Amino acid sequence: MATHKGSEGVVKIGSNTIAEVRDWSFTITSDTTEDTTMGDTARSYKPTLTSASGSISAYWDETDSTGQGAMTAGAEVTLNLYPEGDSSGDTYYTGSVIITEEGATAAFDGMVEASYSWTANGSFSSTTVA
Question: Which end of the chain has fewer CB atoms < 10 Å from its terminal CB, N or C?
Answer without folding.
Answer: N
